[in-house]
Amino acid sequence: MILGKLRLMGVSGVIDWVIQRISSVVISSYVLWLFAWILTADSVDYQAWKALFSNFWMQVYTVSTVIATCAHAWVGMWTIGSDYLTKRQFGDSAFLVRATYNAFCGLLLFLYAFWSFYIMWTLT
Amino acid sequence: MKIHKRPINVGIPDLLVFRFPITAISSISHRIAGVALFLGLSVMLFALQKSLQSEESFNLIREALGSPLGLFIFVGLMAPLVFHFVAGLKHLIMDLGFGETFEGGVLAAKLVFAISALIICFIMIWLLP
C-alpha cells in the first residue's frame, strides 16, 4: 500500500493535512448550498424538501458530504485523542484508553456514513 | 518514561487557570466546536431521516423547531457549525499565505469571533417568528 509506505516514511501528517482541506471544501460547499436553497425556496414544505432529496445528484452530494465529514472528523478526533489521552494523563493504560477512544470514534463515523447512505437509499 | 510537569498543549482545565492569548482561545474553541459537531451529526441525520420519512414527521420536525427545546438544540448545532466553518475558512486563507504573522494571527482570531458571532445573531433573528 502506498499509504502504508508513506506512513512509514513519516509523511502521514501530510496526508491528514490534505484530507482535512479537501473534505472541508466539500462540506462547506454543501452547507452553503443547503442554506442558499432554504433561503431562496418559495416555501420549505415537505413536497419541495422531498423533491430536493429525491434528485439523484443531491443524494450523491449528501452521501459524499457525510463521507467527507467522517474523514474530516476522523483526523480531528484522532488528533485530539493523541493530544490529551497520553501517558502524562493515563500512565501505562494510555494506549488502551486511546485505542478504545479511537475505536469508538471510528465506529460512530462508520455508522454515520452507513446511516446517510441508508436514508438516501430508502427514499423514493 | 519520565513524566514532566510542563504543559504540552491546551487542556480544558488549563483554560480556567491561565490567561490565554485570543489565538489559543480560538484554537481550543475550534476543537470544542468540532467535537460538538462530531456528536451533533447524529441529531442532524436523525432530523434529516424524520423530515424525509413522511409529511407528518416533516411537520413534527418543523413544529419541534418552534419549541424552546427544539430551538435550543438547533442553535446548539448551528453555533458550533458556524464557528467551525469560519475558523476553518481562516485556516484555508492562511494556507494560501495571507496573515502569517503574529499580528495577522491575532487579527484573524478576532475576526473569526466577530464574524461567527454576527452570523449566529443573524440566524437567531431569522428564526424569530
From TrEMBL, chain A:
Its cofactor is heme. The chain crosses the membrane at residues 21-40, 60-80, 101-121. The keyword Acetylation does not apply. The heme is bound between the two transmembrane subunits. It comes from the Bacteria. Heme binds at H72. It is a multi-pass membrane protein. GO terms for molecular function: electron transfer activity; heme binding; metal ion binding. It is found in: Cell inner membrane. One of its GO terms (cellular component) is plasma membrane. SUPFAM superfamilies: Fumarate reductase respiratory complex transmembrane subunits. GO terms for biological process: cytochrome complex assembly; tricarboxylic acid cycle. Pathway: Carbohydrate metabolism; tricarboxylic acid cycle. A ubiquinone binds at Y84. The keyword Cell inner membrane applies. Its main location: membrane. Keywords: Cell inner membrane, Cell membrane, Electron transport, Heme, Iron, Membrane, Metal-binding, Transmembrane, Transmembrane helix, Transport, Tricarboxylic acid cycle. Membrane-anchoring subunit of succinate dehydrogenase (SDH). This is Succinate dehydrogenase hydrophobic membrane anchor subunit. It comes from OM182 bacterium.
